[in-house]
Design brief:
The complex is a heterodimer of chains A (497) and B (102). In chain A, a hairpin with a 5-residue loop joins strand 10 and strand 11 (454-460). Mean pLDDT of chain A is 94; it is low at 1-6. Chain A is globular, with a radius of gyration of 21 Å. Chain A contains 17 helices and eleven strands. Chain A has helices spanning 12-21, 26-44, 52-67, 110-117, 160-167, 184-190, 224-234, 253-256, 271-274, 278-293, 309-324, 342-353, 356-369, 375-398, 421-426, 432-437, 466-479; strands at residues 47-50, 79-83, 121-126, 173-178, 193-196, 216-221, 265-269, 297-301, 401-405, 441-448, 454-460. The longest helix of chain A is centred in the C-terminal third of the chain and has 24 residues, at 375-398. With 497 residues, chain A is an alpha/beta fold. Chain B has a domain at 9-46: Histone, subunit A (Orthogonal Bundle). A two-stranded antiparallel sheet of chain B has the order 1-2. In chain B, strand 1 and strand 2 form a beta hairpin. Classes of the chains: A alpha/beta (497), B mainly alpha (102).
């Protein structure tokens, strides 16, 4: 592509600075991104809904504010994509499910309101594994999303559409949700930054619930600084979410601005290096060496309890999901399949509306919670959750942050794991423990494998340790080997990396 | 828990009824096998010695959140009802709940 417009590849901070100063119109920024979507998204399928008219109107409002001498906010004119499990008033919010195919929510998620108040322009809603259950974005009722580095491979999941939108330059930023790695793993597969904040720092009001004690909303960006910028806009207490922390969220943008890692104690997690592909292990070790060279003290540490994270998660998350998804009963909103009595209607509606992975998890969760099995499965998993938190606490007495692989492999081929749920679940093995503990964690691109597929290094920190986590992420970003632009990306791709 | 116990097709049918899922015969076979495999993996958790360990239901210490009981705007009723599959007299309409089976 030869339009010569590096603009669609500009970072969020750069776009906002130019738009706020009047140096560039929000209208031109949004047109560039809509054009990139029009050209590329037929093949990538990152978006389920493109909000072209609304985005143009929002951009015009930003430009009008600038012309009137007002400041539209820290994300002025920045195109943002939203995972389609975030409620948008009057705009379809499908969760990639037939059961919500035609639903238009009567309210906006809190994060959506905060984005608009900061001057952001929402360009569309992105594809996901149905109800965020999956690790490849293949479990979408509306078809898979493809990895821009190799169209025959998955982008990861469940927030695959958001990861691809940012990786391919279709949006400068995106929001996803992370219940067991659904932001970090696709970020790793697509060569972008993805962050799961501390549980409770970002309001879940308007995030369609999957597993409420694990779900968190977080940013995708092409740089650590841009991820922090977006996080700081959406984070903060919200009375509409009873699990929202009633205290100021740690400001992360300043930390990302480059305090460095001099003097930080960083643990290299043996469990997240030993059982992963050699190319991934090599990248993590190279990242550890880079941090040491930048002045951190880096030491290998073993936390064997992390091995129990995966089996505990696949009892706890389905249990919560089976309860949360009971609301899809064909009564108040969403699909209804008619039947003579209400219970038959419930059953027929849920059979027609849910896809295979959602049914599988509802079944698993219902079983784990059923009489006779509750103590052996769900109750035991909750105790294991306590053990994992205690093991992390112990590690954080000696370390300020931990690093390891984000995922055990790079992006795998479409179709490779769809028939073997357990193999698919194993791709979350390195990301799940942070969700069980409620801790922040993020993935930073760090080179590629021999086939050119991106690799992510994960940075983990204790609760509310975002500032430290961002310092480590920033140091990794500076030291990371150059990553080629995706094979399929907006004009100007690669100009900045 | 009995280690030899494997999830059966009958178990799957029972769980499907609890979960209000009208599964096909083919789905029951598939899910019985797949759930058994996942539960076998989960058995490593079931086998752990967790004597004296307190369960964690939530990463935050949860407390009741109170607010003043003051009237304030709620979701717009017409907008909410517009999303319902069936409505009558500004209420959700459902098929028969009680009475004889057809």
């Amino acid at each position: 592509m030869t339009t010569g417009a590096a603009g669609a590849w500009a970072g969020a901070s750069a776009i906002a600075t130019e738009v706020r100063s009047g140096g560039r119109s929000a209208a031109s920024v949004v047109e560039e991104h809509l054009a990139a979507i029009a050209v590329l998204d037929g093949e990538l399928h990152a978006f389920l809904t493109v909000l072209a008219d609304q985005a143009r109107a929002d951009a015009a409002a930003v430009d009008a504010a600038v012309a009137a001498g007002e400041d539209p906010g820290p994300l002025a004119g920045v195109p943002v994509a939203l995972k389609d499990n975030l409620c948008t008033r009057g705009v379809p919010t499908t969760c990639s499910s037939r059961i919500l195919e035609h639903w238009r929510p009567p309210y906006d998620a809190t994060v959506v309101g905060r984005l608009r108040a900061a001057g952001a322009v929402v360009v569309g809603k992105t594809n996901l594994d149905e109800f965020a259950m999956g690790s490849s974005t293949e479990n979408s009722a509306f078809g898979p999303t493809r990895n821009p580095y190799d169209l025959a491979r998955v982008p990861g999941g469940s927030s695959g559409g958001s990861a691809v939108a940012v990786a391919a330059g279709l949006a400068a930023l995106a929001l996803g949700s992370d219940t067991g790695g659904s932001i970090r793993q696709p970020a790793s597969f697509c060569g972008v930054v993805g962050m799961k904040p501390t549980y409770g720092t970002v309001s879940r009001y308007g995030l369609v619930a999957f597993a409420s004690s694990l779900d968190q909303i977080g940013p995708f960006a092409r740089s650590v600084a841009d991820a922090a910028l977006l996080h700081d806009v959406v984070a903060g207490h919200d009375p509409m979410d009873s699990t929202s922390l009633d205290r100021p969220a740690p400001a992360t943008a300043a930390a990302a601005a480059g305090e460095g890692v001099e003097g930080l104690r960083i643990g290299l997690l043996a469990e997240f290096v030993e059982d992963v592909d050699p190319s991934v292990a090599g990248a993590v070790r190279a990242g550890a060496e880079a941090l040491a060279a930048a002045g951190a003290s880096v030491e290998e540490v073993s936390v064997p309890q992390l091995h129990f994270g995966l089996p505990a998660y696949y009892l706890i998350a389905p249990a919560e999901a089976s309860s949360n998804l009971a609301r899809y009963d064909g009564v108040r909103y969403g699909l209804r399949v008619d039947a003579p009595d209400v219970e038959a209607m419930n059953r027929a509606t849920r059979e027609a509306g849910f896809g295979p992975e959602v049914k599988r998890r509802i079944m698993l969760g219902t079983y784990a919670l059923s009489a006779g099995y509750y103590d052996a499965y769900y109750g035991q998993a909750q105790k294991v959750r306590t053990l994992i938190i205690a093991a992390f606490d112990d590690a954080y007495r000696r370390f300020d942050a931990l690093i390891g692989a984000t995922a055990p492999s790079t992006a795998f081929p479409i179709g490779a794991k769809v028939d073997d749920p357990l193999q698919m679940y194993l791709s979350d093995v390195c990301t799940i423990p942070s969700n069980l503990a409620g801790h922040p964690a993020m993935s930073v691109p760090f080179g590629a494998d021999a086939g050119g597929l991106p690799i992510g290094v994960q940075v983990l920190a204790p609760a509310l340790g975002e500032a430290t986590m961002l310092r480590v992420a920033g140091a990794l970003e500076v030291a990371a080997p150059a990553l080629a632009a995706p094979a399929l990306a907006a004009p100007g791709a690669g100009a900045t990396r | 828990m009995d280690d030899a116990r494997r999830l059966t097709r009958e178990d799957a049918a029972y769980v499907a009824r609890l979960a209000r899922l009208e599964l096909t015969e083919e789905e029951l076979d598939t899910y019985a096998d797949q759930l058994a495999a996942v539960l076998e993996h989960a058995a490593q958790v079931a086998a752990l010695d967790t004597g004296g360990v307190v369960p964690t239901a939530h990463p935050l210490p949860l407390e009741n959140v109170l607010r003043p009981d003051e009237p304030r705007p709620s979701l717009d009723r017409d907008e909410v009802l517009a999303a319902a599959p069936a409505v009558e007299d500004r209420r959700f309409r459902v098929p028969r709940v009680l009475g004889e089976s057809p």
